[in-house]
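Let's practice the habit of predicting before peeking. Look at the sequence and jot down your guess about where helices and strands might fall. Then scroll down.
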Amino acid sequence: MFDAILFNKTTFLTSAPSVRESPADEGKEVAFAGRSNAGKSSVINALTGNNKLARTSKTPGRTQLLNFFFLTENRRLVDLPGYGFAKVPVAVKSNWNRNLAGYLQERKSLVGVIILMDIRHPLQKYDLQIICWASKSKMPIHLLLTKSDKLRRGAINNTLLRVEKELKKENLFSNLSLQAFSSVKKSGLSELKQKLKIWLN
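Done guessing? Here is the structure:
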């Protein structure tokens, strides 16, 4: 029997430079992936109600490790290294991408991936690569279109419809759901929590 999930009780567990140095591969994990400027840390902080839990920065690309957060004895959240940021050395970016791929391909406790995309710039190259990988692996995906406070309601709905249409055209919409989200306004928070509870239970 799993314990109830209280997201506001989430605590930092550990950081790991690679999947081999990660916590024991047991229980259930949900990973947060996205471009370096998609706002992963802000989403995790909004989800947990703790603005100091995940490190946020105005400089994209600061998350270079696999960061694990403890929910209950059997459940974790994982903040993955941001991808696709151009202003880092090639060797560093290559290492990040290797860690990201290694985690996604090897981690047996992974039950779902939240892919974050800036709602103003969705479905860029690296986003599609991860969606394609997860689709082939039958891994559940939830697309979180962040920074929705930057757009009006009509533009938000149009973007959601466009993303869904493009993914269906590429046969990538099975096993996938999507929503708009704003860390600033906390809009979409209850929907995100519900998705995580379904996956983690």
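How did you do? Confidence is low (pLDDT under 50) at residues 57-62.
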